[in-house]
Amino acid sequence: MDIETTSDEEYTVRKVGRPFTKDYRVYFERRKDGIPISPFHDIPLYHDKDKGILNMVVEVPRWSNAKFEISRDISLNPIVQDTLSDEPRFVKSCFPYKGYLWNYGALPQTWEDPTHTDPATHKKGDNDPLDACEISRHSLIPTGGVRRVKPLGILGLIDTDETDWKVVVIDVDDPLAEKLDDIEDVERELPGLLDATRDWFRIYKVPDGGRGNGFAFGGAYRDRKLVKGEADSGKISLENTTLKGTPGKLDPEEVKLPPGEDLSPAPTPRDIEEWFFVDREKLDREGLSLDVERLDIVLDIK
């Protein structure tokens, strides 16, 4: 059985199936009593609301290429690998970047509503939890890690005509965290990272035949802001084991996860080790930067 403790020691993960296959699952359990939980619903958004410290679930470790994500529709929302053309999806390395630039993941108990037109972007949400880019200099956080993070700012990505906010955060245990309180601090302490982040999100789908992505506010970063809301969950699995009075509440005594496994990863595509070169000037000519005027950022927190 392969059970790993996440960094904050409040949760453990149970791996089921072979990594880099469509059957791979990373389930979550509460460490103190072994109760299975949903990383989408049961892990609270705030670790310390008074101090503005959030919890972040890491899906993709920095420098890696496999696109893992919290499942919307599987019971208890395990982390799975996304698919492209019905095969496990790997993000190509676009020169000069190797895989993802940050520890990439999601903020639990958030949701970008696909029925709601965001007044800031004039686009509907992408039906996923809110994405987060964790920028600490020293931490390489594994898939399923849960970190306490400080939000610093937000980038408004327009991905396939949907609103897809990217929140820039830093692990509060990183030595640099004390120097970073807002997005301007990131540019001062980590010069070039914000430009690289914007560039990466613009081009990362191009090697797979996608178009470059556009941005709200002409690609400018904005300060942090979350606004509570309510909406129909649609086909998203709401099953959880800790939220009393919710439609998806399960009896934890009756929830049985599959046995954990410690299997070697499946072979990865050969092109994962290749550089892909993207013509930024061509993207400029295609005019793929969306500029909007309004700044009201509406995100739904269950």
Automatic annotation (TrEMBL):
The keyword NADP does not apply. It holds the Pfam family Pyrophosphatase. InterPro entries: Pyrophosphatase, Pyrophosphatase_sf. Residues 237-268 are annotated as: Disordered. One of its GO terms (molecular function) is magnesium ion binding. Keywords: Hydrolase, Magnesium, Metal-binding. One of its GO terms (cellular component) is cytoplasm. Its EC number is 3.6.1.1. GO terms for biological process: phosphate-containing compound metabolic process. Its cofactor is Mg(2+). Transmembrane segments: none annotated. Belongs to the PPase family. This is inorganic diphosphatase. It comes from Echria macrotheca.
